Amino acid sequence: MDNGGKNTLELCTLRSEPDQCGRRARRMGKKLIYNKYRYIGYTDGSRSTLLPQPEWMGVLGPQLQAVVGDTIKVNFLNKSDRPLSMHPHGMLYDKDNEGANMDGAGAIVQPNESFTYTWVVDKDAGPGPNDPSSIVWLYHSHVMAEEEINLGLIGTLVVTRKGMERSETDPAPKDVDQEFTSLFMIFNEEKDKEKGLKHSINGRIFGNLTGYETGMGKHVRWHLVALGNEVDNHTVHWHGQTVLDHGRRTDVVEVLPASMTSVTMVPRSPGEWLLHCHVNDHMMAGMSTRWHVWP
Amino acid sequence: MDNGGKNTLELCTLRSEPDQCGRRARRMGKKLIYNKYRYIGYTDGSRSTLLPQPEWMGVLGPQLQAVVGDTIKVNFLNKSDRPLSMHPHGMLYDKDNEGANMDGAGAIVQPNESFTYTWVVDKDAGPGPNDPSSIVWLYHSHVMAEEEINLGLIGTLVVTRKGMERSETDPAPKDVDQEFTSLFMIFNEEKDKEKGLKHSINGRIFGNLTGYETGMGKHVRWHLVALGNEVDNHTVHWHGQTVLDHGRRTDVVEVLPASMTSVTMVPRSPGEWLLHCHVNDHMMAGMSTRWHVWP
Amino acid sequence: MDNGGKNTLELCTLRSEPDQCGRRARRMGKKLIYNKYRYIGYTDGSRSTLLPQPEWMGVLGPQLQAVVGDTIKVNFLNKSDRPLSMHPHGMLYDKDNEGANMDGAGAIVQPNESFTYTWVVDKDAGPGPNDPSSIVWLYHSHVMAEEEINLGLIGTLVVTRKGMERSETDPAPKDVDQEFTSLFMIFNEEKDKEKGLKHSINGRIFGNLTGYETGMGKHVRWHLVALGNEVDNHTVHWHGQTVLDHGRRTDVVEVLPASMTSVTMVPRSPGEWLLHCHVNDHMMAGMSTRWHVWP
């Protein structure tokens, strides 16, 4: 289960600085700040250099990128105040590396302890025959999963089909210019009270998510994921452009909790456009942002 | 962005006559009537001849039909008492023709004013490689979108793959005999009160939608759309026949708010059949109608 | 509509023994038992030998298996205390054999009466071009459908593509080693009270469903179905393995009420794994079980 550590990521988790997740842009003069927990990534074990974290990632943890045939090793150091884990979707792992269900060595990582997860990116972790050249998988903490997901302990893995990687050192797919990831999820910040339900994209609400910027004619992959509970049925809608979703042409893609799907767009109209959930009450509650297509 | 006005529609909107949307068939002796707003279509700018509106369209606005390569021009005259717009899904438009978000010339059309929208039906507005020969897109008002959608300001655009149109003057696809459209949506008529939630197909409830009539062996395209809020997860079910849904054989198709999908049926059993949402509480609340397959 | 009774099943229904559906594993010392109704199958009209009912089927009625071209005949004897029927999805039937809507001879079978349903498995009941070699259809009672579904009167039909059956006497598909079926549904046992909502897989909750056992490298088909109401949006998630879902690689499959979809898995990691709904509140409410991949 080792490829010589080709794709090795050093991750540590810590209680984050107060985050903008709960800030309601319209409520001027009074800021509501909710503390979130986040996965923070470093380039190596010295934990001195942060992994690049594009603005549009919001509260998401680092996006791990691999090619079918790789092995991912993540050294996870829990700098928070509670037991946590990392449980990946899609990867090949044994019980020690499942990071879930109080079963196996990696199921519970206590505060200030660390564990190195080994996840094999086998062919069953890669794109299916009708998938595009790269697909997305969620990872999240899974000690008390529903609580930890709501705290913000969520990230994604992107797997490129073998032969479609740009080069031996760059696992991104060569047939697209840019890859964006969007998490549609209602964070529950005040124990189920309506006013504490934060309808977010990557943890940001009411247009506070920035950085989705691309240009005319680019090939753009959108990796769409969702999490949450019974009301987290979301319909991702882009204004101005359409996407190809497994051979279906649309501008609305349906996701439910833990859905993971990847679609492709070639922007054909420049401007500042909306990206929002098309469920009426979600859109009104802030599940919306602006994104840009430069001429 | 002009094809010489080949597909030009003159549309005006007006506050409609009282509509049957809220009539509960079982509540004899007492009719509950809710006023809806509707898009009304005319054959030309004289606004003297109404576009054909088959009975099964219910409260839906006119169905615009185009072929990839066409340009759609809609002269929209707002005869209602509030600012409105027309925002199309899927089409290629610039900001002036987006009809949304208070941005651009067509974003807000005041009462008794008009605006001509130009929408280009480019290849990214047409069927994808796994789509059938025609696909459906929604259009709706988008000044205060959630309110106006609930008022009934909803219609559809159908786009036929280039080369699959019947003739230069008939954009309908030549491999199907009939095209039906069904909107699954819960209209909210009494400010969220349970009794005001009208679980409708094309704005009609408890079997009040009529006109879905076809024959044995016909090739029938069903264009399915939905709108609404968090409870508008619908499962469209036909009795007696099955459909082909992007290569999947089924008799239940899932839609969420703003889903747009097109499936094909060849009726193989004659009779009067139910078409209904298979969500138990929606079915009981009236989201059901009868349709006919003649021998 | 007869193939000489090749696939003829004798089914009778009776009020079942108290069932485990409502037993909450954690609530020790106090068992909550809810009575369910079930379809019970016999090998022939003598009703002496029960059809095999693997443990993992839980409260599901017998799984009927056929090949495109077959005719299914079911002699249904209602041994319960209320009028019932059998309504199949997908099959070719006339009004007498629809088993629904108070219309036709088989629409209502009174207590202690019987009716023989004839359902033709035509090509439109079989897998579509993008479906795997076998697909699943629901059947359920449809006199007062929503009540009877909640009572447990639910079963499945599996149809194999012509030419993919193992032999003339074994309709199971030859390209898979095992077929499992999973119904995701919230049974409503105490008139909508939260505590009576039993979030179940095949009618079992909190790990009480047993019998999903397979081995490394087997070809396993999972037939996934759902039923219920507006909150029955479920996301079926397997730990440890992935599935191929109409060419899409994933480990989470979305279902809504009456969804029917079939996916294929080749287990690649041994162990005891979770199968659960990934909707947070459903998972916490017991919609989860363990399954095994033997080395």
Structural commentary:
The structure is a homotrimer of 295-residue chains. The first copy, chain A, is mostly beta strands and 295 residues long. Helix content of chain A is 4%, strand content 38%. The first copy, chain A, has helices at 145-151, 280-284, and strands spanning 7-15, 37-42, 63-67, 71-79, 87-88, 114-120, 134-140, 154-160, 178-188, 197-201, 213-215, 220-226, 234-238, 243-245, 248-250, 252-255, 260-265, 271-277, 288-294. Chain A is globular and about 50 Å long. The relative contact order of chain A is 0.16. The interface between A and B is large, with 33 and 39 residues.
Please write out the topology.
The structure is a homotrimer.
Chain A: E1 7-15, E2 37-42, E3 63-67, E4 71-79, E5 87-88, E6 114-120, E7 134-140, H1 145-151, E8 154-160, E9 178-188, E10 197-201, E11 213-215, E12 220-226, E13 234-238, E14 243-245, E15 248-250, E16 252-255, E17 260-265, E18 271-277, H2 280-284, E19 288-294
Parallel strand pairs in A: 1-4, 3-8, 9-12, 11-19
Antiparallel strand pairs in A: 1-2, 4-6, 5-7, 7-8, 9-10, 12-17, 13-16, 13-18, 14-15, 18-19
Task: Provide the residue-averaged pLDDT of chain A.
Answer: 89
Shape verdict of chain A: globular
Strand content of chain A: 35-45%
**Low-confidence spans of chain A: pLDDT under 50, at least 5 residues?**
1-5, 16-29
SS class of chain A: mainly beta
- How do the helices and strands follow one another from N- to C-terminus of chain A? EEEEEEEHEEEEEEEEEEEHE
Largest sheet entry of chain A: 5 strands, mixed
Quantity of strands of chain A, as a count: 19
Oligomer kind: homotrimer
| Rg result of chain A | 18 Å
Distance between the termini of chain A: 46 Å
Name the pair of protein chains with the most residues at their interface, and give those residue counts: A-B, 33 and 39 residues
How many individual helices of chain A? 2
